[in-house]
Design brief:
The structure holds 2 protein chains of 2 kinds. By secondary structure, chain A is mainly alpha-helical. Chain A has 14 helices and 2 strands; from the N terminus they run ααββαααααααααααα. The longest helix of chain A has 31 residues. Chain B folds into 2 domains: 43 residues; 211 residues, Orthogonal Bundle (MetI-like fold), CATH 1.10.3720. Chain B has 18 helices and no strands. The chains are: A mainly alpha, B mainly alpha.
């Protein structure tokens, strides 16, 4: 961090400060320029964060005044019979996402890094699915997943003699189908992150390995992959943080079904707060969000430790 | 204490002011505009496991070319395939898409799908809503990020580090935590006490609270040469003048990155606009599309999907470099 150089531009210049010197040195200009941030962050970030902690120990339904209920919301959420299912589903989603979504971008990026001409076309093609709005891609895949024999995927399977699959309509294959769609939508971004990391590998390392007579595979194994170690950890943590908050896919593709097989934690939070037309259980929703946040904060902390160490080196 | 993730400026040319300044001489904010010249980038060839000597061996050349061919094919099928299918089905009669989804126009075209979607399903209205939302989010994020970045990086008030860490703290808070309290805040904002529900402000204003933007912009401003500010100050330029005439013009590269993030994020957003814009008249495409799914003729529905994809894809093709640089950056900072 190279921030604290002592050569202020318009800021405070010397020791003794009275309101008058503050004004003369342009302190009010600083406050005016900081005003947008104060207002926006104050109202739409800092205040809601504090409020969520307060609300998690209150009973609130917007009609009657909030009542302090202590740990009741947490107890209620933790004893909800759906919670274990949702947690397991979310873990299942995260696990499958790692199995599907981790090796494919890595192999693709390592291969793409060896492309000598028109590399840009490869990256552009890989990134295209990321550009498509998630709602569109989910709805498009819903059509692909059509369970009848004239669904898009089932037609393609028919070409190679495989019968129609139920995809998102059966409890067993619903979650893998969701993950497949999510992987398709996200793999491009991961590939680009890997490529950026690979571009910063010092070429001398490869030259030295070549001089020592290393084969291509040995160069990939001993030079390329070790250079990716940091970024591999980071994408894994990012992916875990993202998959723990998965909402769009189950919400739009399956609505949590069939038979609760795709209910995720965020879907539960949404249902607590917004699915009930008689008024949401905001206390339970915030309590569960805070539990999620605590788990994710551990991962975020790990992420920040890794990125700061990684960029220092 | 160093929890601040450092964007890896060296690996990402877009973040280094000096380099991008020389890459974009003078006029026009053509950040990340694709290069027309097609000469191979010598640097790109260097950091690769397969050396020039390796490439001269026929076995290596054939295997690698074959692998790259397969990769290219796979990327075309997965990256372009669904888009092409959507484009095809948008102008195919519904009956054909239902009975033979992979056939290529067995019974001719149905161009009217696009017209019906735009006019009768009111995709045009929702499209404009989406555009307004994106423009507003962009404006709010730009104002907040640049003014805050400038104040914290260049003006450096005494309480600056404290403010910076307060902003950074919000990076640790996953967006799910904010969902309910933010909704209640928009329902009854402090000071204003006038519900923002069903107004675009409900989407515009919260989008400005992006710590990620401020980190990016502040880091970039930190790397600008301070001598220029000193010189301008000696010449009598006030803080606003320096901000508008010196700092902003020097920062087109990072402003391009923030713009891309802002517009794309707004175009993609679904859950938040769905919560705060229950009135159909003001809803963006992302919210309307799932709602019209069951009530709309399939061909028209796919046409609506295709229309909503058009702008992001065009933006991507135009500003490819900015997009891909931002994506690489995302791995380094985004939480």
């Amino acid at each position: 961090m190279s921030v604290m150089r002592t050569q202020p531009g318009f800021g405070p210049e010397s020791g003794r400060r009275t309101p008058l010197t503050w004004l003369r040195q342009g302190g009010h200009h600083t406050v005016i320029l900081l005003l947008p941030m104060f207002l926006i962050f104050g109202v739409f970030s800092w205040y809601p964060i504090v409020r969520s902690v307060v609300m998690s120990v209150q009973k609130t339904n917007l009609v009657s005044a909030p009542v302090f209920v202590g740990w009741d919301n947490f107890a209620y959420v933790l004893s909800d019979p759906l919670l274990p299912t949702a947690v397991l589903n979310t873990l299942y989603f995260a696990g499958l996402a790692l199995v599907f979504g981790y090796p494919v971008p890595l192999v693709a990026a390592v291969l793409m890094n060896e492309v000598r001409r028109r590399k840009g076309i490869f990256s552009a093609l890989a990134y295209l699915p990321v550009v498509i709005p998630p709602v569109v891609s989910v709805l498009l895949w819903k059509l692909f997943y059509d369970g009848s024999s004239t669904g898009v995927f089932n037609t393609i399977l028919g070409w190679v003699g495989i019968g129609p699959q139920p995809w998102i309509q059966s409890a067993a294959s619903a979650m893998p189908s969701l993950v497949l769609q999510a992987t398709w939508a996200g793999a491009g971004a991961t590939i680009i992150i890997y490529l950026a990391a690979l571009a910063s590998v010092p070429p001398e390392l490869y030259d030295a390995a070549s001089v020592d007579g290393a084969s291509i595979w040995r160069k990939i194994w001993h030079v390329t992959l070790p250079q990716l170690r940091g970024v591999l950890f980071i994408t894994m943590i990012l992916q875990i943080i993202a998959t723990a908050q998965v909402f769009l896919e189950p919400f739009l593709l399956t609505g949590g079904g069939p038979a609760n097989s795709t209910v995720t934690v965020l879907l539960m939070i949404y249902n607590y707060a917004f699915a009930n037309s008689l008024g949401g259980d905001y206390g339970a929703a915030t309590a569960l969000s805070i539990l999620v946040a605590i788990v994710l904060a551990l991962f975020s902390l790990l992420y920040f430790r890794l990125t700061s160490r990684w960029s220092d080196s | 204490m160093s929890v601040i993730p450092e964007p890896r400026a060296a690996a990402l040319p877009v973040l280094a002011p000096e380099r991008s300044a020389s890459a974009m001489p003078g006029k026009g904010a053509r950040t990340g505009w694709p290069r027309r010249t097609r000469r191979p980038d010598p640097e790109a060839q260097e950091a690769a496991a397969i050396s020039a000597a390796d490439w001269r061996r026929p076995r290596v050349r054939i295997t690698t070319t074959l692998l790259h061919g397969m990769l290219f094919l796979a990327l075309v099928v997965t990256g372009l395939g669904p888009l092409l299918w959507m484009a095809k089905s948008a102008i195919t009669p519904t009956r054909d898409t239902l009975t033979a989804p992979m056939a290529l126009f067995p019974n001719g075209f149905a161009w009217e799908n696009l017209w019906i979607a735009w006019n009768e399903v009111h995709v045009g209205t929702y499209f404009l809503n989406t555009v307004f939302l994106a423009i507003g989010c962009w404006a709010v994020q730009m104002i907040v990020a640049t003014t805050a970045g400038y104040a914290l990086s260049v003006l450096r008030p005494r309480y600056g580090p404290l403010l910076t860490s307060l902003v950074l703290c919000t990076l640790f808070v996953p967006s799910v935590v904010l969902l309910v309290p933010l909704y209640l805040t928009v329902l009854d904002p402090p000071l204003l006490h006038q519900s923002l529900i069903n107004t675009f402000w409900a989407v515009w204003l919260p989008s400005g609270a992006s710590a990620f933007n401020i980190v990016l912009v502040k880091k970039f401003f930190d790397n600008l040469p301070r001598e220029i500010f000193e010189a301008a100050k000696t010449d009598g330029a006030g803080p606003y003048r320096v901000f508008w005439s010196i700092v902003l013009p020097m920062s087109k590269a990072i402003l391009g990155v923030v713009s891309v993030f802002a517009i794309i994020a707004s175009w993609k957003d679904f859950l938040w606009p769905m919560l705060v814009l229950p009135d159909i008249e003001v809803q963006p495409l992302s919210v309307r599309l799932p709602a019209i799914e069951t009530t709309t003729d399939l061909g028209v529905f796919i046409a609506a999907l295709a229309i909503s994809t058009l702008i992001p894809v065009i933006l991507f093709l135009l500003f490819q470099k900015t997009f891909l640089n931002s994506a690489g950056l995302g791995g380094a900072v985004k939480g």
